[in-house]
Design goal:
It is a single chain. This protein is 43% helix and 17% strand. With 356 residues, it is of the alpha/beta class. It has two domains: 22-159, 3-Layer(aba) Sandwich (Rossmann fold), CATH 3.40.50; 196-355, Nitrogenase molybdenum iron protein domain (Rossmann fold, 3-Layer(aba) Sandwich), CATH 3.40.50.1980. The strands form three sheets. Strands 8, 9, 10, 11, 12 and 13 form a six-stranded mixed sheet that branches. A five-stranded parallel sheet has the order 5-4-3-6-7, sandwiched between helices. The N and C termini lie far apart (64 Å). The protein has 15 helices and 13 strands.
Amino acid sequence: MLTISKTLKFIFLTLITSLVIIACSSSETPVQQASNKTNCRTIEHALDTTEICGQPEKIVVLSPHHLDLLLSLGYQPAAYGFPFATPGVPKPGDRFNNPSQQIPYLGEQVTTQPVNLGLGGEPSLEKLATLKPDVIFGEIRNQSSYDLLKQIAPTFIWDVRTVGGQWQQTIQDMANILGEEEKAEQAIATHQKAIDKARQDLASVVEKHPKLLLLGMNSLQNQVIVIQPNTYLGEVMQGVGFEIVSLPSIKVKGPSIPISVEALPQLNEADIIIVMGHSSDTEKTIDTSSEKSLDSFVKTSQSKPVQESWQSNKIAQGLKASKNDRVYFTTYYLWNGLNGPNGTQLILNELREFLL
């Protein structure tokens, strides 16, 4: 009976949501009316093949990654879905009235006041329907709500953003959707120029300490992941000149290898280690009143617990990089969450702070 009750409740909520969407979306946006099925493009994405017509203006992004790519194309968001609950962020349905203090890392580039849709993985469908956007950009985590999202506006879903080269394909698709194909090439060129400049700046460091290990974790007591060379982050660091350290005996196609802390000595050839902390428990880790910005809050809340875990672990402290004081702590949110041209520039700026 309990299972049937839950199922009926889910069906009921889905029907109610659908009725709300239909009621709010019964009239087309001005852009959709003007397009009148002209200048249409068909784009294949992770879940479907979707048609888009005209010139989208009200653009919704449901992740920091797609916000990075959208800003790189010179566009601003009409609505945004946040990756996790964070103090200081407006309530769902309200607007980001001070983006530079409410959206980490990319907020200074946001000149609009986008609607806050709550968590990007579970955006408010009612607020979306009320907004009547022209297009929605999401990630594979939005798969469960895709059928409802596409009733609101043409919706495009992409997967595996951390895999090497994927973001270039995604930004080209987005540029095609927006009718701005040439802007994608400009963004990719900007990304490469940033890497080339960092390679020049860090040449002497790379020559002395060429082997770099990239780790992600929320503590050493839990699972540690080793970032592979064939990833966005691996490609950026190899572009700077580093050799990415991994486990040679393990062949994986994915972007990372999960290991236990006991396996760390197998990676002891690393001259430099960068540890990316991640945690969704941001409200309990730090008092935001002591922070100057949301950027520093996110970094401290996600990297400080990892740093404390590393410094108290005998295995981690026995590594060559630890003994030589060349282990650096940062946030997974920045280093492997944006995965676009703006994120690349921010990562390289922090890398200079670490190493120069």
